[in-house]
Specification:
Elements: E1 4-7, E2 10-13, E3 16-17, H1 18-25, E4 29-33, H2 34-47, E5 53-58, H3 65-74, E6 77-80, H4 83-91, E7 99-101, H5 108-117, E8 121-124, H6 127-140, E9 144-151, E10 173-174, H7 178-186, E11 191-197, H8 208-226, E12 233-235, H9 252-263, E13 270-273, H10 277-280, E14 284-296, E15 299-304, H11 313-317, E16 323-325, E17 334-339, E18 348-355, E19 362-365, E20 386-391, E21 394-399
Parallel strand pairs: 4-20, 5-6, 5-13, 6-7, 7-8, 8-9, 9-10, 9-11, 11-12, 12-13, 15-17
Antiparallel strand pairs: 1-2, 2-3, 4-14, 14-15, 14-19, 16-19, 17-18, 20-21
The structure holds pyridoxal-5'-phosphate (PLP) and lysine.
Lysine is lined by residues 60, 162, 202-203, 313, 317, 371, 375.
C-alpha cells in the first residue's frame, strides 16, 4: 500500500488531503508519513531475523526530531556524522549505546562529546583519526569503542558524487593497510576494537557491489582473527537505492535476505546496517504552489514557490524526482520546466514535465523525504520550509517555517 496516493483525484498523505496541508501551513512544505517510515524501517529489521543485528538509521538523510523519534521508538540505532547529529539524536530520545559515529573529520570536541555520552562505536576513517581518538580517550581516562571503516575499492556504479568505496574517494582506510592498524589499535589500553565497517556509496540499485564488499570484509575479519584481533561486529553501511523514476533496486527485505544468507554461519558477528535513503526518500514529499506560468520562445515554465534552496538534488546531481499535481485536472497537459524563484539557471526541480496545471495549483515533488530538507539552505535569503508529519488522519507541524528575522539572528552590524 502506498501511503501517498490519490483518492478522487486528490493526493493524500495517509488519510490527510495534501491540499488541506498546503492550505493550513502554506508552501513550500515537506510532508512525511509516519506509517511509511515505520514500514520501511521494519522491512530492514524483520528481514534480519534472529541473527544479532542493529539497524542504525543514517541521520543525514533526514534529521528532523520527529523523524528520529519515530525511529527511536522502534528501537533503532543511529549513524551520525557530527556532534550536531549526536545532539539531535539525544534530543529525540535515541539510545546513545546504539549510535555509531562515521565521518572523515571528527574534531577533538566531537570525540570528547561522544565519549562522555557513551556511544556504541566510532567508525574510524583514517590512521590520524585513530591516533586522535586514542589520545582523547586517554586524556578522559575512557575506553573508546572503535571500528575501522575500510575502503574495499569496489565500484558502486552510482553517481560519482555519491560513490564512496573507491580508492580515490576520501572515505575509509585502504583495506590493504587495515590489518596493521587493527593490530596497533588492539594493543592500546584506551581503545576497544569492536568492528569492521564499510559504506561504498549511495543510491545503489544492484546487489553485486554490496556482495563484493562483503566478501572482502569477511576475508579481512578472518585475517584479523589469525592475527589475534577479534571482531564482534560488521557494519555494512547504507546505500540501498530507491525508485525515483524507473530504477529497480532490490526491496530492502531482498537486500537483507541476500546479505544475511552469506552471514548465517557467522553468529559471532552482530551485523549493523546504516540505511538512510531507503527508509526516508519515499516517506516524504515536498508541497509547492504554482506562482506563474510563463512562456519564452517555445519553452514553457512553471514557476513554483519551492526552489533549489529547498531541494538541491536536481541542481547538484541532475537528480530526477517525480512532480505531480495535488489536485488532478482534466485539461490538456503541456511540457514544462518546473523552476523556482532563485536567481540561478540551475534552479529547477524538474525539466520537460507533462503537467496539466494553472497558477495557484499545488504540486508535490515526490521521493523528497531523504536529502531534501537536510540539504536545504537559506540561499537568496529564503526561509527554510515547514515540515509536517502525518500520522493516520492527523497532521503535526514538526518544524515551523523559518521567520525572516531568524535569517539574521546572530549577525550584527558595525557600531561606527
Ligand atoms: C557512512 C554512511 N552511512 C550511511 C549512509 C546512508 O546512505 P544511504 O542514504 O544511501 O542509505 C551514508 C551516506 O551515503 C554514509 O556516508
Ligand atoms: N545527498 C545525496 C546522497 C549522499 C549520501 C551521503 N553520504 C543525495 O541526495 O542523493
Amino acid at each position: 500500500m502506498d501511503y501517498f496516493s490519490y483518492q478522487n483525484r486528490s493526493l493524500f498523505a495517509e488519510q490527510v488531503a495534501c491540499k488541506d496541508i498546503a492550505e493550513a501551513f502554506n508552501t513550500p512544505t515537506y510532508v512525511y508519513s509516519r506509517a511509511t517510515i515505520e514500514r520501511h524501517w521494519q522491512a530492514f529489521d524483520d528481514a534480519a531475523g534472529e541473527h544479532p543485528h542493529l539497524i542504525c538509521y543514517a541521520v543525514k538523510a533526514n534529521s528532523n526530531l520527529a523523524v528520529l523519534n519515530v525511529m527511536a521508538r522502534l528501537g533503532s540505532g543511529f549513524d551520525i556524522v557530527s556532534g550536531g547529529e549526536l545532539a539531535r539524536v539525544l534530543e529525540a530520545g535515541g539510545d546513545p549505546t546504539k549510535i555509531v559515529f562515521s565521518g572523515v573529520g571528527k574534531t577533538e570536541a566531537e570525540i570528547e562529546y561522544a565519549l562522555e555520552i557513551g556511544i556504541k562505536c566510532f567508525n574510524v576513517e583514517s590512521e590520524a583519526e585513530l591516533y586522535r581518538i586514542n589520545s582523547v580517550a586517554k586524556e578522559l581516562n575512557k575506553i573508546a569503542p572503535i571500528s575501522l571503516r575500510v575502503n574495499p575499492n569496489v565500484d558502486a556504479g552510482t553517481h560519482p558524487y555519491i560513490s564512496t568505496g573507491l580508492k580515490e574517494n576520501k572515505f575509509g582506510i585502504n583495506i590493504d593497510d587495515a590489518v596493521e592498524l587493527f593490530k596497533w589499535a588492539n594493543q592500546q589500553e584506551h581503545l576497544n576494537v569492536q568492528g569492521v565497517d564499510c559504506h561504498i556509496g549511495s543510491q545503489l540499485t544492484d546487489l553485486s557491489p554490496f556482495l563484493d564488499a562483503l566478501d572482502k570484509l569477511i576475508k579481512l575479519i578472518d585475517q584479523l582473527a589469525a592475527a589475534g584481533v577479534t571482531i564482534c561486529h560488521l557494519d555494512l553501511g547504507g546505500g540501498l537505492g530507491v525508485t525515483y523514476k524507473d530504477e529497480t533496486p532490490p526491496h530492502p527485505s531482498e537486500y537483507m535476505k541476500v546479505l544475511m544468507e552469506k552471514l548465517k554461519h557467522r553468529p559471532d558477528l552482530t551485523i549493523l546496517f546504516e540505511p538512510g535513503r531507503a527508509i526516508m526518500a519515499n516517506a516524504g514529499i515536498l508541497l509547492t504552489k504554482v506562482e506563474f506560468l510563463k512562456q519564452n520562445e517555445d519553452k514553457h515554465f512553471c514557476i513554483v514557490d519551492a526552489a533549489m534552496n529547498d531541494n538541491i538534488r536536481p541542481a547538484l546531481y541532475s537528480a530526477w524526482q517525480d512532480i505531480v499535481p495535488v489536485e488532478q485536472r482534466d485539461s490538456d497537459s503541456l511540457s514544462y520546466d518546473v523552476v523556482g524563484p532563485v536567481c540561478e539557471t540551475g534552479d529547477f526541480l524538474g525539466k520537460n514535465r507533462e503537467l496539466s496545471v494553472e497558477a495557484g495549483d499545488y504540486l508535490a515533488v515526490r521521493s523528497a523525504g531523504a536529502y531534501g530538507f537536510t540539504m536545504s539552505s537559506n540561499y537568496n535569503s529564503r526561509v527554510r520550509a515547514a515540515e509536517i508529519m502525518v500520522d493516520g488522519n492527523t497532521m503535526h507541524l514538526v518544524r515551523q517555517r523559518e521567520t525572516v528575522e531568524s535569517l539574521w539572528a546572530g549577525e550584527s552590524i558595525l557600531k561606527d
